């Protein structure tokens, strides 16, 4: 029977507002609902539109979009009306009569530019499959009566109670997932795991990383704000934080630092290899990695030129555009390296990232796995106009013992003379690398569909790309480079008033950063024969003086603040394949000068060369081994490996939690908390108000506290019709349907500053409608209800950071008088006077009345 009643209570609101087959509200999924109990309105948010309803009559009041523009019709196609085949057209650049005729290669280059533009337009306009960066994800009602909505692009929009757009702001580039409004603060949970605290004007108070995955829900309970993440983790913070309490807690915990600090030590093996599109033998992998991994806790492997060629690079760019990455050959390398490391038994692969020919992966030993997690990935293309991944960097970020480690595999610009380009590539990678979670990627199914569109246009692009790249013609190509590039665009925009140059690189926040890869720095001012002679004599000291990377680092132009162990192995480039020993150096027509192209550099928390590991300097690394595997001949480069000894100082959470509990239970902290959580003393001027027709009374609410703001809300708890004069009346509950239509209370919610007051206007509004009386006698809409009415108003008051509430009851009675004054339009607005500059001055939120033939049959129902 209960299920049947629930089914019968279903109301199809779309059918009620559909006229001649046209519906004003969107057919898209409803994302959020918010009930404004004071105004008796319900906010319904879709992806890109809002509808505002009267909670009592179910009347649709307003439909508007995210920009605040009123919409007559929301159901529009998400994609463009232009056919896909028009989007796929490739525009060739024609030459004018006055211009010099272009050759075949130049025409081919123009065709590539046109095809690349088609790729961008298809990627942007595959409408139904592209995410709208303005999609609404969260909605909340704040203490001052405003409505806040959060979008996928990180923007927050503030609305008044009537659906008028007031302002928007952004403090974080990731999507808003949830809100929690409490007192004078609004907590915002983001897709990145960040939680921010804002005031009611939208100013940022504080922010912190709450979780390693998106924050999907927040709630207030027992003086704490709790957050829930997608992985199921729940964390809580005192609602008095941030504030003076934090300073006390920090000082108390600092005194117990020695008790809570733990130091752990483990080894990291880092390997880099330009495989030259070849494949390694099991013996080569064992010599390079397997033989050295017996005593290490983490293995990091970076490969370059896993797979190359114009066709592969173009298709890789297309896949990146839709959030797809990897290849069958890249998977082969991951599986083969995993076998050499005894993956599954001894090691566990934590993550990997591939960008065209670049591949990086991390394995963690089983006994260290419980202390490692939160793997993030990033990719930055640098080839062909910062768009193609033949050059660039891929990175992985890992948390170990609550410390952040980043590993970046790079392949920088080639050729002896391209020193400045290599420096610029590093600078671009370091400044724009943005790490992201898999949840930030596009939906795989949608990505695959869009990938099909891109592949069609890229088939022609690939053919032309082969022609131009083989000719050596300069090419500037701006194909979109995937999800990470999209994030780079966000970072490059003006976020929170900061220019792109002022945005702090994410790599600068890590406790330890390791750069590895084929940096392509060569030996300068030396001939091929001279270099071969010094190598054969193992005179590496003199050769190091000719090293371009050493010179550029010394001048502070690249890899600033990073360290490298002393090189004691021969140059690792360039060799003939499958020729062992130093005689295998390139002896062909080009005779490339041997060079240390393959390098591994790092920096940790140390400000000086020698520093002790502590909570102030939590990560201290030293190099145990730095060498090349000269016996491996599967590529024209030799693989290089570096073994680090890493010491990490961190806080033992279990011990810290125990000590923190003792501090919070101390008398000192309890006294401070009681002071913060106390409800301000307030005085309400009257507990009884009597009104006649269209008469106004003033209810004065005074905040006697001199330190804290008072948050007030006025609701209607019960309604009655006075049966007989002199007899008591029974109040029937009104639930969440706001005030009766004959009563206007303005403002019904707000905040009162210390030692200030708020004047609330309580006014009778003439309204004729069909009413069900308290004694069951129906009244027709054309007859006047001449009985006296009475409502019980409850003024709820609490502090700006207190979960406790004090209530004041005010009885409001309307006495019918036969001689009524001249009728005034019920839609007219009343001016209100608010004294004591601390009160909130908001617009007049008048209830919108429905037509006279609508039954108010939900007046006495309980709210759910």
Automatic annotation (TrEMBL):
BP term (GO), one: phosphatidylinositol dephosphorylation
Record's compositionally biased regions (Polar residues): 840-852
Transmembrane segment boundaries: none
Domain Inositol polyphosphate-related phosphatase span(s) in chain numbering: 264-652
Region entry Disordered, spans: 803-864
GO molecular function, one term: phosphatase activity
Family per similarity comment: Belongs to the inositol polyphosphate 5-phosphatase family.
Protein name according to UniProt: Type I inositol polyphosphate 5-phosphatase 12
The organism of origin for this protein: Vitis vinifera (Grape)
């Amino acid at each position: 029977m209960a299920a049947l009643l629930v089914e019968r209570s279903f109301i199809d609101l779309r059918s009620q507002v559909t006229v001649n087959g046209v519906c004003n509200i969107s057919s898209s999924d409803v994302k959020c609902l918010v009930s404004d109990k004071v105004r008796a309105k319900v906010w319904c948010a879709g992806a890109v539109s809002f509808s505002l309803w009267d909670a009592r009559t179910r009347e649709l009041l307003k439909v508007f979009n995210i920009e605040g523009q009123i919409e007559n019709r929301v159901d529009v196609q998400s994609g463009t009306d232009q056919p896909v085949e028009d989007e796929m057209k490739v525009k060739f650049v024609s030459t004018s009569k006055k211009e010099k005729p272009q050759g075949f290669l130049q025409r081919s280059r123009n065709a590539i530019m046109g095809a690349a533009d088609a790729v961008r337009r298809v990627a942007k306009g595959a409408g139904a499959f592209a995410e709208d960066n303005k999609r609404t994800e969260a909605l909340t009602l704040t203490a001052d009566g405003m409505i806040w909505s959060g979008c996928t692009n990180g923007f927050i929009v503030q609305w008044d109670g009537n659906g008028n757009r007031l302002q928007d702001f952004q403090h974080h580039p990731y999507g808003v997932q949830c809100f929690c409004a409490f007192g004078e603060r609004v907590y915002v949970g983001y897709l990145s795991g960040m939680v921010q605290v804002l005031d009611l004007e939208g100013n940022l108070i504080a922010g912190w990383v709450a979780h390693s995955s998106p924050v999907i829900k927040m709630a207030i309970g027992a003086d704490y704000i709790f957050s829930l993440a997608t992985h199921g983790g729940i964390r809580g913070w005192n609602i008095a934080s941030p504030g003076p309490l934090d300073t006390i807690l920090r000082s108390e915990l600092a005194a117990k630092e020695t008790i809570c600090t733990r130091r752990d030590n483990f080894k990291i093996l880092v390997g880099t290899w330009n495989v030259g599109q070849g494949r390694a033998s099991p013996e080569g992998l064992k010599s390079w990695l397997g033989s050295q991994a017996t005593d290490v806790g983490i293995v990091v492997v970076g490969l370059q030129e896993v797979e190359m060629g114009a066709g592969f690079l173009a298709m890789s760019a297309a896949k990146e555009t839709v959030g797809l990455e990897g290849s069958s050959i890249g998977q082969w390398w991951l599986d083969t390296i995993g076998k050499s490391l005894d993956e599954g038994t001894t090691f566990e692969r934590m993550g990997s990232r591939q960008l065209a020919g670049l591949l990086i992966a991390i394995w963690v030993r089983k006994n260290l796995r419980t202390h490692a997690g939160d793997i993030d990935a990033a990719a930055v293309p640098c080839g062909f106009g910062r768009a193609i991944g033949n050059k660039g960097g891929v990175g992985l970020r890992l948390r170990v013992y609550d410390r952040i480690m980043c590993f970046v595999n790079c392949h920088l610009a080639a050729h002896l003379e391209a020193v400045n380009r290599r420096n610029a590539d590093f600078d671009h990678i370091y400044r724009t690398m943005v790490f992201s979670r898999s949840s930030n990627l596009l939906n795989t199914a949608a990505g695959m569909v869009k990938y099909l569109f891109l592949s069609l246009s890229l088939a022609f692009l690939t053919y032309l790309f082969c022609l131009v790249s083989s000719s050596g013609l300069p090419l500037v190509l701006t194909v979109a480079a995937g999800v990470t590039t999209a994030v780079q665009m966000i970072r490059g925009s003006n976020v929170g008033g900061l220019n792109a140059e002022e945005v702090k690189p994410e790599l600068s926040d890590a406790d330890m950063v390791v750069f590895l890869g084929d940096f392509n720095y060569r030996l300068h001012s030396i001939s091929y024969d001279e270099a071969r002679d010094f190598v054969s004599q193992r005179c590496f000291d003199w050769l190091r003086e000719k090293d371009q990377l050493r010179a550029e680092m010394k001048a502070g132009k690249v890899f600033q603040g990073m360290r490298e162990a002393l090189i004691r192995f021969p140059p690792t480039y360039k060799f003939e394949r499958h020729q062992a020993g130093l005689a295998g150096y390139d002896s062909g027509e080009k005779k490339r000068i041997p060079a240390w192209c393959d390098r591994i550099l790092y920096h940790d928390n140390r400000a000086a060369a020698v520093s002790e590991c502590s909570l102030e300097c939590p990560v201290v690394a030293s190099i145990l081994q730095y060498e090349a595997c000269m016996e491996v001949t599967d590529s024209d480069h030799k693989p290089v490996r570096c073994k680090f000894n890493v010491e990490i100082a961190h806080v033992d959470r279990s011990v810290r939690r125990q000590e923190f509990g003792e501090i919070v239970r101390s008398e000192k902290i309890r006294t401070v908390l009681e002071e913060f959580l106390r409800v301000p003393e307030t005085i309400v001027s009257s507990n009884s108000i009597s009104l006649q027709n269209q008469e106004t009374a003033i209810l004065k609410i005074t905040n006697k506290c001199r330190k804290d703001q008072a948050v007030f809300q006025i609701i209607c708890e019960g309604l009655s019709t006075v049966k007989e004069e002199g007899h008591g009346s029974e109040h029937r509950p009104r639930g969440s349907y706001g005030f009766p239509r004959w009563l206007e209370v303005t403002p019904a919610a707000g905040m009162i500053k210390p030692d200030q007051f708020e004047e609330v206007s309580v006014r009778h509004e003439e309204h004729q409608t069909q009413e069900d009386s308290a004694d069951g006698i129906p009244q027709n809409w054309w007859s006047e209800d001449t009985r006296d009415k009475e409502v019980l108003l409850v003024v709820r008051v609490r502090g700006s950071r207190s979960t406790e509430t004090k209530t004041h009851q005010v009885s409001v009675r309307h006495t019918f008088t036969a001689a009524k004054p001249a009728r005034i339009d019920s839609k007219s607005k009343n001016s209100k006077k608010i004294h004591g500059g601390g009160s909130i001055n908001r617009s007049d939120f008048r209830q919108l009345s429905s037509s006279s033939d609508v039954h108010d049959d939900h007046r006495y129902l309980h709210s759910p």
